[in-house]
Amino acid sequence: MSFNGLNDQEIRRREELSKLRELGVNPYPSSYTKSHNSSDVLSQFSDEDASALSDISIAGRIVAVRKMGKATFCHIQDEAGKIQVYLKKDDLGEVYDHFSLFDIGDIIGVKGYAFRTKVGEISVRATVLTLLAKSLTPIPLGKEETDENGVVTRYDAIADKEQRYRKRYLDLIANPEIKATFIKRSKIITAMRRYFDERGWLEVETPILQPLYGGATARPFITHHNALDIELYLRIADELYLKRLIVGGFEGVYEISKNFRNEGMDKTHNPEYTSMELYVAYKDYTWMMEMTEDLLQTIAMQACGGTDVDFKGTALSFKAPFARAKMYDLFQEHTGKDLRGASREALYAIARELHVEVEPSASSMKILDEIFSEKVEHHLVQPTFVMDYPVEMSPLAKAHSTESGLVERFELFVMGKEVANAFSELNDPIDQRERLEEQSRIRADGDDEAMVLDEDFLNAIEVGMPPTAGIGVGIDRLVMLLTNNDSIRDVLFFPQMRPEKTQAQRSEE
RNA sequence: GAUCUCGUAGCUCAGCUGGCUAGAGCAUUUGACUUUUAAUCAAAGGGUCCUGGGUUCGACUCCCAGCGAGAUCACCA
Predict the structure, then answer these.
(1) CA of A148 to C1' of B45 (A)
(2) What mean pLDDT comes out for the span A446-458?
């Protein structure tokens, strides 16, 4: 065995591993029968009658050891929490001596009985001690102190954000409270799925590898299929495939899936992220708004226990109904200007007047977008539906039934961020073709985020799609809001990080 | 992509306007200790000071470049 590149602690643990094997201890047995979780023991223990917990077995990782000669206290951590274990030479005989070859980080099984120590902590006294997995790497576990009020102070735990994201397994061990965020994330998705399933909408799967990408304006990732010798794109949205399924006769389909966008990364953007898209036939965006507020209210209640949540000091209410505002009314309210029907030149002049910086060559849409971002968005703190967007901004949305130049679209904003985007889906094939051809022209003019023309999708719309309402929800952003996290990296187990350069890579350059 | 800040032991950090052998606590090792709880007491080992250049008699410290991270902005839903 080579110890090259290992530090003293890593070498010592390998030596201990060999010693254990020599003593006939299997450091990696196949299974272990657990009767209780730590939390079960703590909640079920009774001082009056300890017989219920007189023969139990628990298992977990050693996270703290206090050795006092022929008796040792340690804490083990399992999925549900931590519990103290009491080991005594008299009880364990030579197995007690093996314990000196165990380390913080090792996973052990403990069979024994629950009791309360002199100082009052419910603990498990071991009659049988089993090593379940020897740990070969020191784990950066901080010591903890719990005061009379049960407030836990942790010292020196792994704090470096980079390490926490790159080695999430260590983060989860050393900072187990972050599990709550991920458990809530799972509950949010489960609640959403349950809501849709109860209404009879079908969960489906559509291709991630696509010969053409579409459904959103974004730059894609490109990959290559060897056997077909073609370029394939990682999807940027589910929209065009889900609509094909509505054309095919399904009347409610949804997909919870990863999308991939080849763009910048920051607090609210990860190159791969989770979105949910739902399409329901014979409905429009008004119906969809009502569904959305009911959905989010339901999710908040099921995942957070109520419709009121705290986000970094702001009290948010997900109690339906949400505020609704037309986009142009919001412009009027926050800029004092009526931008309806304004020409590009007029918009440009207004932007300058409002001190909103825009490129002189910017399109009307770009200018509107800028003014909205700078002057309106940050006012939308509580959940707010912004309705009725200009047609040019929304090539897949249906023209508004009463207002020309607009489409039946809404976006849901919370804390100034977009959480959902929905519209009455465009099902007029002629109109759809013209809009996508316009996108092709914009693309040809150099905007590589404009949509690609997908003939097969147009063919599907020509076959005939019923009136349909569709929505996309950014799951990560929703989870951020409901778990009080302001960085997307804290709601993803494994956020994308720049790979660390190896020594070899460095010397090549 | 731009700017600012940061990178020292397994972990958390100190290290002055450049100056002796780079420190502390935890973790680790050895010894003591059969109800401890940030256990305690005694001793010991452990460093590519992010990397590579430069300035200097002398660099953890100053300068340049690079790598990585965080924050802000830009881009982007």
Answers:
(1) 38
(2) 86
Q: Straight-line distance from CA A109 to C1' B21, in Å? A: 47
Please give the structure tokens belonging to residue A483.
């778990």
Residue A239 (CA) to nucleotide B48 (C1'), in angstroms, measures 52
Which of A131, A133, A113, A108 lies closest to A123, judged by CA? A113
Report, in ranges, which bases of strand B sit under 7 Å from a protein C-beta: 1, 9-13, 25-30, 32-40, 45-46, 48, 51, 67-77
The span from the CA of A366 to the CA of A348, in Å, is 10
Q: Distance (Å, rounded) from C-alpha A303 to C-alpha A216?
A: 29
For A472 and B54, how far is CA from C1' in angstroms?
A: 55
Q: Which residues in A282-326 belong to E strands, given as ranges? A: 308-311, 314-317, 323-326
Q: Rounded to an integer, what is the distance from CA A490 to the centroid of its chain? A: 8
Residue A505 pLDDT > 80: no
Prediction ipTM score: 0.88
Name the nucleotide nearest A5; use CA and C1': B48
* Cβ atoms A328, A339 nearer than 8 A: yes
Least confident piece of the model among A52-56, A151-155, A376-380: A151-155
Q: DSSP letter at A70?
A: T
pLDDT at A5: 66
How are beta strands A152-155 and A143-146 bridged, if at all? antiparallel
Which among A392, A394, A424 is positioned nearest to A408, based on CA atoms? A424
A233 neighbors A451 (Cβ within 8 angstroms): no
Cα separation, A195 vs A197, in Å, equals 6
pLDDT higher than threshold 60 for residue A303: yes
Give the nucleotide at minimum CA-to-C1' distance from A501: B67
A84 with A75: CB under 8 angstroms? Answer: yes
Q: Is the pLDDT of residue A503 over 60?
A: no
CA angle A484, A487, A491 (to 5 degrees): 70
Q: In the structure, how far is the CA atom of residue A8 from the C1' atom of nucleotide B38, in angstroms?
A: 24
**Strand stretches in A26-182, DSSP E:** 56-68, 71-78, 81-88, 107-116, 122-133, 143-146, 152-155
H, E, C per residue of A115-138: EECCCCCEEEEEEEEEEEECCCCC
The predicted model scores a pTM of 0.92
- Pairing type for strands A252-260 and A202-203 reads parallel
3-state SS string for A433-485: HHHHHHHHHHHHCCCCCCCCCCHHHHHHHHHCCCCEEEEEEEHHHHHHHHHCC
